[in-house]
């Protein structure tokens, strides 16, 4: 049975980079967007359980991007906030959906491809991929547990996103800044894999999943072309017209990470991800090539150093 047309979408975490992009794209298509957040501009608040129920009632799709940024040092305070901001909001949505008279057809909850182990030997897909260990993996597993254990019969997808690239924010700004200041060489040994996805393809994957009821469970979102970190930085430099860049060994990255209050895992972990579920269901990426994606992003990126959120 085909799903009804997508008319109304509820978005939690709409104030973040991905959420803003999704809101703009759907609104431009004439889709009614309802938002969940903590600000006065949101249509529903986390602090009002009945308001969540009322806002979700009659919506076609729920997308949850809520969660504190992981671009920070993993102190106990930050770690607790990272976990609670994901698990508690997901649990709250599960309770609200269980009480909603006309719940959405699909609940897409943000997750991360960091859930897989450091991989340099083969790609990790949803069927044969091996989960890793450590803090980030533990967060992802707890996040997905809240989603799939929620007491509601709504179809659920854990969107295991790779590194999201796009203009105006996202994960690319630090790489651009490094290249523009002469430090755009390989990071660490440079051989770690870099799976990525253009922000436009994240939105497309969301609407595609809504239109294809056979898609459910964990779903990887990563472009087909996977490169090494060294190749990533070479292509970033080429896009910006920078022929060379100083390499950054692991010790230098750790020193810099302490200064800007982030973790080296974000660039040193080898992420090799295969979007098997999407690929086998027929999904096609609009941005399968890294160089073409970088060229598109560069065309919408101002000169000079770009803003980067510090932890």
Explain this structure:
This protein has 311 residues and is of the alpha/beta class. It has a domain at 8-169 and 195-225 and 271-286: NAD(P)-binding Rossmann-like Domain (Rossmann fold). Helices cover 39% and strands 15% of the residues. It contains 11 helices and 11 strands. It has helices at 17-28, 49-56, 76-98, 135-148, 173-180, 199-211, 229-240, 250-260, 265-268, 276-281, 290-298; strands spanning 8-12, 32-37, 44-45, 61-64, 106-112, 155-161, 163-165, 193-194, 196-198, 217-221, 227-228. A 7-stranded parallel β-sheet has the order 3-2-1-4-5-6-10, sandwiched between helices. Helix 1 (17-28) links the parallel strand 1 (8-12) and strand 2 (32-37). Helix 2 packs across helix 3 and helix 7 (229-240) packs parallel to helix 11. The radius of gyration is 19 Å and the shape is globular. 40% of the residues are buried. The mean pLDDT is 96.
Describe the protein's topology.
Blueprint: E1 8-12, H1 17-28, E2 32-37, E3 44-45, H2 49-56, E4 61-64, H3 76-98, E5 106-112, H4 135-148, E6 155-161, E7 163-165, H5 173-180, E8 193-194, E9 196-198, H6 199-211, E10 217-221, E11 227-228, H7 229-240, H8 250-260, H9 265-268, H10 276-281, H11 290-298
Parallel strand pairs: 1-2, 1-4, 2-3, 4-5, 5-6, 6-10, 7-9
Antiparallel strand pairs: 8-11
The biggest sheet, with number of strands, parallel, antiparallel or mixed sense and barrel status, is: 7 strands, parallel
Overall average residue pLDDT: 96
Alpha carbon gap, first and last residue: 46 Å
Q: List low-pLDDT spans.
A: none
Task: Write down how many β-strands occur, each being a DSSP E stretch of 2 or more residues.
Answer: 11
Work out the helicity level.
Answer: 25-40%
The spatial strand order of the largest sheet comes to 3-2-1-4-5-6-10
Relevant CATH superfamily of one domain: NAD(P)-binding Rossmann-like Domain
| CATH architecture title of one domain | 3-Layer(aba) Sandwich
**Proportion of beta-strand residues:** 5-15%
Write the CATH fold name of one domain.
Answer: Rossmann fold
Label the overall shape. globular
Give helix and strand order, one letter per element, not per position. EHEEHEHEHEEHEEHEEHHHHH
- Structural class determined from secondary elements: alpha/beta
């Amino acid at each position: 049975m085909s799903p009804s047309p997508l008319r109304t979408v509820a978005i939690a975490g709409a104030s973040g980079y991905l959420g803003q992009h999704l809101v703009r794209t759907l609104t431009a298509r004439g889709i009614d967007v309802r938002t969940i957040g903590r600000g006065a501009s949101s249509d529903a608040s986390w602090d009002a359980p009945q308001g969540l129920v009322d806002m979700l009632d009659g919506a076609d799709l729920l997308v949850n991007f809520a969660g504190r940024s992981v671009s920070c040092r993993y102190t106990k305070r930050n770690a607790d906030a990272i976990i609670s901001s994901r698990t508690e909001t997901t649990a709250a949505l599960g309770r609200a959906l269980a009480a909603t008279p006309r719940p959405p057809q699909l609940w897409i909850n943000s997750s991360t491809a960091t859930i897989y182990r450091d991989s340099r030997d083969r790609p990790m897909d949803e069927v044969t991929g091996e989960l890793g260990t450590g803090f980030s993996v533990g967060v992802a597993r707890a996040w997905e547990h809240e989603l799939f254990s929620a007491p509601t019969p709504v179809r659920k997808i854990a969107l295991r996103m790779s590194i999201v690239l796009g203009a105006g924010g996202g994960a690319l700004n630090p790489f651009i800044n490094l290249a523009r200041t002469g430090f755009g060489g390989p990071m660490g040994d440079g051989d770690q894999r870099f799976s990525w996805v253009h922000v436009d393809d994240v939105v497309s994957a969301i609407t595609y999943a809504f239109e294809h009821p056979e898609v459910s469970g964990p779903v990887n979102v990563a472009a087909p072309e996977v490169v090494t970190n060294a190749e990533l930085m070479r292509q970033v430099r080429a896009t910006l017209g920078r022929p060379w860049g100083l390499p950054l060994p692991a010790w230098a990255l750790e020193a810099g990470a302490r200064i800007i209050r982030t973790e080296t895992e974000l660039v040193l972990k080898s992420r090799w991800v295969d979007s098997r579920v999407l690929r086998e269901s027929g999904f096609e990426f609009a941005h399968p090539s890294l160089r073409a994606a970088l060229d598109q992003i560069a065309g919408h990126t101002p000169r000079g150093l770009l803003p980067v959120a510090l932890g």
